[in-house]
């Protein structure tokens, strides 16, 4: 349960939020927009650690996650209480319970004073606009409901009202257009230096990648390339999973296959409403439940300062739980906004670099980069993928469902404000950090295939260590950060280099040639006397009789008695253990696997060579 001091909203704070008359409120709420028929929310069952994930000033990360888990029995009580009150329970984990209901039900069950408020957001395409948020007049934390004084007290720590989140943006062959752009898969693969590991068999085979987005719809491009796509998983509250009405999820998934053509993709469709993604935390948890190695996310909200809303606190906890469980989580940094969860410290945050026709690299002025005001010392992004430039970043030609929202919205016109394709041809040019995140998720899959035991933090470190430094250009005008030598807030550590990343992963995993087993040492066969009489091989010839020498025998050296007593010869003693085999060339693999060949200094020097070499060796 949220403490009254922490959860109850002061009058001054409420006025700042524009909240209306409720518990402790003196002013009236702003004119209400229409409430949706279903309000989605995340309930936090009472935690084992006794610390609510909604505690002010506490942002859930891998380091604090253990404080917020709940016992199975408590989760079951929470589900029962919500169901008995009339709510529809959609999903449950040991961190949170996802449910929905009408405004009237929320008011009656929790005694909440809900209202709607229009707030500025960054919508797809980097467009600034307004979106409707649902808030509670009774608490300081935006979107939080405190169950104190209700039947849920002692069962729930708090309830987070979900918020809108936005995307950070059919022939099997793309259409021909007369402006410079990239085609999938080849141009993206070459641009991120992924063709080298592909040639050596590092293609992401056996790695599971989940993608939380608008869904996936079949397209000839994916069929003809033979990509492995599992049936779309429904996020709670989602409509038909076989249809991608927007097209974003379908198109961006091509970026995954461009860098990791043999991964298995698990699309997860999240609910949408009025152009926004809703109930995304539940969709993210649905992705976690699939047991993937990697989850890629091309969406987020705009969070410049704290405190985080209750919905974002719940989302932060879900992200931390996934990473704590060994899942590598990739998020786009944003297209002009302060991307969240792109700034969460446990994720791989991805920005953008533009590769021009002549191969020159510069920071994309379409993408976000900043020092987080929520997480001290957190630089965003970590690394960058390939992204276009303002005004609309129409840069990568991607396959989408014919006539979907993006097909219609981007089609026609003249570049750079239109992609010069038809509005129903199943192709569109777009990018943004929405495209960069799945590109880098694919590279993570290559690293994962190379060394499955690397954890998410190690994978992120390899990406940052091996990225190609970008020293030209600035990021989005909202930030205007300049790309300089070394890590910066324009491109992070630079453009991801898949070839170098895989080489370093191999080195850190200490992959060596297969060790051939040594032949067993066979003991010497002991002497056994014959079982029968000795039979001569041939006829016995008599020994020639002794004949004395012709003269007297003269000793060569006169005999001298010993100086001291005669010491008996030491009898032979067998060795205490087996005789070790002689080490030869066949044992080189064994020696390396035992750490006898490479020291830490050796590894450091080899890594430096790989990173600094103009052309690293083939795998």
From TrEMBL:
Keyword match Membrane: no
Give the matching Pfam families.
Peptidase_S8
Species lineage: Bacteria, Bacillati, Actinomycetota, Actinomycetes, Micrococcales
What residue stretch is flagged as signal peptide?
none
| Peptidase S8/S53 domain: residues covered | 204-479
GO MF annotation list: serine-type endopeptidase activity
Catalytic residues at 213 (charge relay system), 248 (charge relay system), 434 (charge relay system)
Record-stated family: Belongs to the peptidase S8 family.
Keyword tags: Hydrolase, Protease, Serine protease
Which PROSITE patterns is this protein grouped with?
Answer: SUBTILASE, SUBTILASE_ASP, SUBTILASE_SER
| Name of the protein | Peptidase S8
> What does the record list as GO biological process?
proteolysis
Q: Which domain of life is it from?
A: Bacteria
User: Among its keywords, does the record have Amino-acid biosynthesis?
Assistant: no
């Amino acid at each position: 349960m949220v403490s009254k001091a922490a959860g109850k909203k002061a009058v001054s704070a409420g006025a700042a939020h524009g909240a209306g008359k409720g518990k402790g409120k003196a002013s009236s709420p702003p004119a209400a927009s229409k409430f949706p028929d279903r309000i989605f929310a995340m309930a936090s069952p009472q935690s084992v650690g006794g610390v609510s994930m909604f505690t002010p000033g506490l942002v859930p990360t891998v380091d604090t996650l253990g404080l917020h888990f709940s016992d199975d029995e408590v989760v079951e009580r929470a589900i029962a209480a919500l169901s008995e009150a009339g709510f529809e329970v959609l999903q449950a984990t040991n961190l949170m319970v996802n449910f929905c209901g009408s405004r009237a039900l929320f008011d009656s069950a929790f005694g909440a004073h809900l209202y709607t408020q229009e707030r500025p957001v960054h919508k797809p395409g980097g467009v600034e606009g307004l979106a409707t948020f649902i808030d509670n007049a009774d608490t300081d934390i935006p979107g939080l409901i405190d169950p104190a004084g209700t039947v849920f007290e002692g069962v729930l720590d708090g309830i987070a009202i979900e918020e809108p989140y936005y995307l950070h943006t059919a022939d099997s062959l793309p259409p021909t257009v007369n402006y410079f752009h990239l085609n999938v898969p080849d141009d993206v693969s070459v641009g991120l230096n992924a063709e080298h590991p592909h040639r050596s068999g590092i293609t992401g085979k056996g790695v599971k990648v989940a993608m939380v987005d608008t869904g996936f719809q079949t397209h000839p491009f994916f069929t003809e390339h033979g990509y492995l796509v599992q049936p779309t998983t429904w996020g709670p509250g989602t409509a038909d999973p076989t249809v991608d009405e927007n097209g974003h999820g379908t198109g961006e998934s091509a970026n995954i296959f461009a860098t990791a053509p043999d991964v298995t993709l698990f699309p997860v469709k999240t609910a949408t409403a009025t152009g926004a993604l809703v109930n995304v935390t539940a969709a993210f948890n649905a992705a976690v439940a699939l047991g993937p190695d990697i989850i890629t996310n091309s969406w987020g909200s705009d969070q410049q300062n704290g405190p985080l809303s209750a919905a974002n606190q719940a989302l932060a906890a879900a992200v931390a739980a996934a990473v704590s469980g060994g899942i590598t989580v990739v998020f786009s940094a944003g297209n002009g906004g302060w991307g969240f969860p792109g700034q969460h410290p446990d994720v791989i945050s991805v920005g953008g670099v533009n590769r021009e026709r002549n191969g020159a690299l510069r920071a994309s002025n379409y993408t976000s980069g900043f020092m987080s005001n929520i997480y001290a010392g957190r630089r965003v992004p970590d690394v960058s993928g390939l992204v276009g430039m303002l005004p609309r970043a129409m840069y990568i030609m991607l396959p989408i469902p014919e006539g979907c929202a993006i097909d219609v919205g981007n089609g026609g016109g003249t570049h750079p404000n239109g992609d010069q394709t038809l509005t129903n041809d199943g192709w569109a040019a777009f990018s943004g950090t929405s495209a960069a995140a799945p590109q880098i998720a694919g590279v993570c899959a290559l690293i994962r295939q190379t060394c499955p035991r690397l954890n998410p933090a190690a994978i992120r470190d390899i990406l940052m260590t091996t990225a190609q430094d970008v020293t030209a250009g600035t990021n989005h005008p909202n930030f205007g950060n300049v790309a300089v030598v070394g890590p910066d807030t324009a491109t992070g550590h630079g453009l991801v280099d898949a070839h170098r990343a895989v080489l370093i992963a191999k080195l850190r995993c200490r992959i060596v040639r297969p060790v051939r087993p040594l032949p067993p040492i066979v003991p010497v066969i002991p002497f056994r006397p014959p079982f029968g009489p000795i039979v001569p091989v041939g006829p016995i010839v008599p020994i020639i009789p002794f004949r004395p020498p012709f003269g007297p025998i003269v000793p060569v050296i006169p005999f001298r008695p010993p100086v001291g007593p005669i010491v008996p010869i030491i009898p032979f003693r067998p060795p205490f253990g087996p005789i070790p085999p002689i080490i030869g060339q066949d044992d080189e693999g064994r020696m390396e696997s035992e750490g006898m060949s490479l020291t830490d200094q050796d590894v450091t020097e080899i890594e430096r060579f790989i990173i600094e070499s103009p052309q690293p060796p083939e795998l």
